[in-house]
From TrEMBL:
This is Uncharacterized protein. Residues 83-96, 103-127 have a biased composition (Acidic residues). The lineage of its organism: Eukaryota, Fungi, Dikarya, Basidiomycota, Pucciniomycotina. Residues 80-145 are annotated as: Disordered.
């Protein structure tokens, strides 16, 4: 029995036992371990000496770049290779690029086709204008009159006025 009911997450790959890690489902492996970094020197005896190993001063990124290939030989990382092949086989690089925002449009070089839209909007505004009641039926007016909320200035209370 272990003291830890769950494995700690996002630790460098070589922190985990290779047999245990390889028994995990491929989709869980990425969730458990940081498969792109390593933390230990390939020979553990070098770490346990009284003196400090010169590579222990490297940044995490440089340390991982230097020792990743040596430390990950016992781990089944085929799911990483398959993911990379799927990405490269897609053929259309724009669909995988999250920074792609569509085609660029030069707004200073337009043909003037959009000017018609402005005229149509002006016609719509004239129709909606409160002073222009040509297109409004009598039923709409009765509805508006029946639902007005007025302030009774004598009592400063709200009252509904029905026509």
């Amino acid at each position: 029995m272990t003291l830890f009911p769950r494995a700690p997450k996002n630790l460098p790959l070589d922190f985990y036992n290779p047999e245990w890690f390889n028994d995990l489902q491929p989709n869980v492996r990425d969730l458990v371990a940081d498969t792109h970094s390593v933390a230990f020197l390939p020979k553990s005896s070098e770490m346990l000496q009284g003196t400090r190993h010169p590579d222990e001063k490297l940044s995490d990124k440089r340390f991982s770049e230097k020792y990743w290939a040596q430390n990950t030989t016992k781990y089944d990382l085929t799911h990483l290779i398959e993911d990379n092949q799927d990405d490269s086989d897609s053929g259309n690089e724009d669909s995988n690029d999250s920074s792609y925002c569509g085609e660029e449009v030069d707004l200073s070089d337009t043909s003037g086709d959009d000017d018609e839209d402005v005229e149509e909007q002006e016609d719509d505004i004239a129709f909606i204008d409160d002073n222009n009641l040509d297109g409004v039926s009598d039923d709409d007016g009765a509805y508006t009159d029946n639902n007005k909320m007025l302030i009774d200035e004598d009592d400063l209370k709200f009252a509904n006025e029905w026509v």
